[in-house]
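re: that chain from earlier
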Amino acid sequence: MNGQIFEGLSLTEIREINAEMSHYEDKTAVSIEALRIVQKHRRWVSDQCLVAVAELLEMSPAQLEAVATFYNLIYRQPVGKTVIHYCNSVSCWMLGSDQVRERLCRHLNVELGEMSADGEYTILPIVCLGACDHAPVAMVGDELRLDITEDAVNEILGR
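^ sequence. v structure.
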């Protein structure tokens, strides 16, 4: 770590990022994993953290921002404890994903991309989850939910 302090990152985050960097000659190869490490600890990547990670990886903040915004599973805004990614691909759309999304938003009293008032949920679209034969589908946290109906919303939300 060279005794250098990267303001905005915890020692745990720095250690985990350094452990990942030990596997690569080029520090920038760890950019996605470094962002995921920060997100694992904070649920999202703030501007301050992004700048600190960029410094640690010896890249510009603009380069790292390009990586962060390319991947839709890196969150640049605060999100709820559980992120619900509803698939909005053609197959899911044709089989009712819009109705499921509307019901989720209504039950949580949020618009798409907002965090619920209790900080528990955020609903985000995702292009495809690769389970078109079970459309509509969603990722609820790390769990893939298949063949979702509007009636499944209470179950998804644990209510």
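The beta strands are 82-87, 121-126, 138-140, 143-145.
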